[in-house]
Design a protein that fits this description.
- The chain is mainly alpha-helical.
- It contains 15 helices and five strands.
- The two termini are 17 Å apart.
């Protein structure tokens, strides 16, 4: 009976989360179709979906596995460039935009998952700050490797170089696909708000079902007490690698969405650097570690806020900083936590009394 109650409670919580995402999509889509939203905010709809996917997927590692990862932007970078490379090469072969994007999405997710496994196997043997340093190094290495990579194509096939375009030694009619620091240009702009919303739903479905499954309970037991989990026969390496790989794959999906929302894709510091990983971590921390709904809301608020305050040029970042402080205090200050627990307990007791 208790198990059925718990299952119904989890199902109800999941449906509320889906409902919040669906309601936000319907409201924004209505505002866009009626012309009641500026072009600037309309252009932020796809980035909003990207940051929600990144925040929710990182929360799987930070919140539920209990490990600090700072390489999320690196997995996003891998997925973005792998999918963009595929779309650029296959643009005249697969002429149906939706089908081409679907294959690009699969490739981006798969490549990011493979990198997640490659990095996860050695890195997850580390703990705390050491893991954070290794994942941070991975993100920076990937970004710098992409910046020195040149790939071209002619009738003889693909040519690779890490020096310059001339070192590719292509024929005169050859095409440069990846041009070092200039990245990839001409990626089909297949990303839409609808596709972003569908990927958000897929991310929520994957993460919430994993968390509420037997595997998810094993992952959380590792977070709570690694020694106790190992003593009852839980395979620590298996479950840590599972959470890390799923998180990396979802970050790759966000990268695919990002790459196909821009005409030019470059691996600069703003897109895939250290600051991007920190910003995603800020979404997770401010939304509440282990709170999927909180990660969604924090990602939306902190992405929209700087643009909505752009008119207040002199005070924009000051207000943004104040909002960050307020959110941090609300989520983590002991008095605020006590107040929230008291309020929620009171509401729960009142409902039980009514029943």
């Amino acid at each position: 009976m208790d198990r059925l109650k718990k299952m119904s409670k989890n199902t109800k919580s999941n449906l509320i989360t889906y409902g919040i995402a669906a309601a936000a999509f319907v409201i924004m889509q209505t505002l866009i179709s009626t012309g009641n939203i500026s072009s600037l905010l309309e252009g932020l709809m796809v980035p909003l979906c990207i940051y929600v996917i990144l925040a929710v997927s990182l929360n799987l590692v930070v919140g539920f596995l209990g490990e600090l990862s700072l390489g999320h932007a690196g997995f996003m970078c891998v997925g973005a460039f792998a999918s963009s490379f595929f779309s650029k090469c296959m643009r005249h072969v697969i002429t149906i935009d939706g089908l081409r994007f679907f294959f690009a999405l699969l490739i981006g997710v798969a490549v990011a998952a493979v990198f997640g496994i490659i990095i996860g196997i050695p890195a997850l043997r580390l703990k705390g700050d050491y893991l954070a340093i290794v994942t941070l190094a991975f993100g920076e290495i990937i970004k710098n490797l992409v910046n020195v990579l040149y790939i071209g194509k002619d009738s003889n096939g693909f040519h690779f170089s890490t020096k310059d375009v001339m070192s590719l030694n292509m024929e005169a009619d050859g095409t440069v696909i990846v041009n070092g620091p200039q990245g990839i240009t001409g990626t089909p702009k297949d990303s839409t708000f609808l596709i972003g919303f569908l990927l958000v739903l897929v991310t929520l479905f994957v993460v919430m079902n994993l968390v509420n499954s037997r595997d998810g309970r094993a992952i959380m037991s590792i977070r709570d007490n690694r020694i106790a989990a190992e003593s009852v026969g839980i395979n620590i390496t298996k479950y840590k690698l599972m959470a890390f790989t799923v998180s990396a794959a979802l970050a790759g999906a966000a990268g695919v969405l990002y790459a196909h929302n821009l005409s030019t894709l470059t691996a600069n510091t703003n897109n895939f650097g250290y600051n991007q990983s920190i910003m995603i971590l800020v979404f997770v921390v401010l939304g509440g570690i282990g709170s999927i709904r909180g990660s969604m809301i924090a990602a939306v608020i902190l992405t929209l806020l700087p643009e909505m305050l752009r008119g207040l040029s002199d005070y924009r970042m000051l207000i943004y900083a104040i909002v960050l402080i307020i959110m941090m205090l609300f989520n983590w200050a002991p008095k605020a936590v006590q107040w929230r627990e008291k309020y929620l307990t009171f509401g729960r007791k009142k409902k039980e009394a009514v029943k």
